[in-house]
């Protein structure tokens, strides 16, 4: 185990158990944070120990205090009422924590896991629709989860599952063929063009029942292999996929495997037919369903009454494909919370058909703008490219204002990296269980709980280190015993919490935990930077403090990388 806050807690628990002098499960010893720093760094409430010993909590705290020596991370122990409070050794922490960070480098914070092989499915855009900012939360959340699970030692296969068939495709192709067949093909923004056709088709089908039937007929023709519509589908599908690839390139997102709904449609129908034969599924008003009423999950629709496939049809085949072909131990599916009930139905169906595999839905709430919600079917979406360009321009203007001597190329490159940090961090800092109202000006700010603020903290540390390096290129001996200030101990304790921030974020499927940790660390560093001299300190103290802030930079850089955010030397 790397030296971390959990290791420190183990030392405290072991010291308490040894002082108690009787057998006790170490995990029963609770460790809390005192309300004030003057009261210690960690505190053990003695109420549980009092029950074991039949001695009052105050008395047991007093007795244990005298039996706990200064050793390792423990500098001293004091009793305050029913609490046994521990003060940590700055010198010991400095040597252990900084040594671990220097040794781990870019890999510090992660650890070797149990080699479980997991598949994380995310993004899942639909072709023939526009890629808007509502899709961003899924991509950014999913990518961060992939990085988190790799950091804790899992073997991860990252996958995308693209909806390239279905009623939405049929409606788009129907509108294209019926109303725009003889128009020139677009030469750019082809995916956006298809999205507008889809919104037009939805509106027309809602207004005219005959149009609705015509669009449904196109779907049947597609599933039957009609040559004309298959050719039109292939061509327009490529338009969407090329646009998606461009967006993923901007976001720095890569998938190990891409699945398509079109690949699993026929296998899905075959599975539904088998379920009918086995009498697990049944007909209901011409459609095929599995009755889940007794599980309070209503009826689960597997096939439309006209024989057309549904998302569930294909999902059955996809689940089988994932586990049988890729030999995974678990499958995690990232989609928005509107699909939570669907996945409850789907997982119960898998259970009923004897498919007992570890699968889970990772839901998240919506992204809206201050002016309101968006919907592709209504056509009132903010397109990713327009949104991205707007954030880049804000970052470019701010960078140009700060650095009038920079070249346009450096300004542009810096602005793009800052813009992505603003977007990604704003999508991650909020718990996936809560909705996001995305405010561009707030996200791009260099102050507060933002990606650019964290980038600026790294840049500030890099600037300090460059100034020191300019004095001499010779390596200096470092005595970490010179890190003995209260603010330095606070910073060291914060650094030691990084591996647990990674582990807990992965366990809860919550990159927001890591985002909060990185912000808190930056805040502790800012307070430290304001309260002590670094470059003007006496030589031995300066070298020790430079080692400390170098460790801070490493942890911030590592944590941001897990969130998919790059850092900058200058900004």
Tell me what you see in this structure.
This protein is 55% helix and 11% strand. By secondary structure, it is an alpha/beta fold. It has three domains: 5-88, Gyrase A, domain 2 (2-Layer Sandwich), CATH 3.30.1360; 122-261 and 327-378, 3-Layer(aba) Sandwich (Rossmann fold), CATH 3.40.50.620; 385-562, Orthogonal Bundle (Isoleucyl-tRNA Synthetase, Domain 1). The strands form four sheets. A five-stranded parallel beta sheet has the order 6-5-4-10-11, sandwiched between helices. A three-stranded antiparallel beta sheet has the order 1-3-2. Strand 4 (117-121), helix 5 (136-151) and strand 5 form a beta-alpha-beta unit. Helix 16 packs antiparallel against helix 20 (539-562). The longest helix has 25 residues, at 227-251. The chain starts with a helix and ends in a 9-residue tail after the last helix. The model has no long low-confidence stretch (mean pLDDT 94).
List the helices and strands and how they pair.
Elements: H1 5-20, E1 42-45, H2 47-53, H3 57-67, E2 74-80, E3 83-88, H4 90-104, E4 117-121, H5 136-151, E5 155-162, H6 167-179, H7 190-207, H8 209-224, H9 227-251, E6 257-260, H10 261-277, E7 282-284, E8 287-291, E9 299-303, H11 311-326, E10 330-336, H12 340-352, E11 358-364, E12 367-368, H13 384-402, H14 408-428, E13 436-437, H15 440-443, H16 451-471, H17 486-496, H18 498-507, H19 511-531, H20 539-562
Parallel strand pairs: 4-5, 4-10, 5-6, 10-11, 12-13
Antiparallel strand pairs: 1-3, 2-3, 7-8, 8-9
Helix pairs in contact: 4-17, 4-20, 5-18, 6-7, 6-8, 7-8, 7-9, 10-11, 13-14, 16-20, 17-19, 17-20, 18-19, 19-20
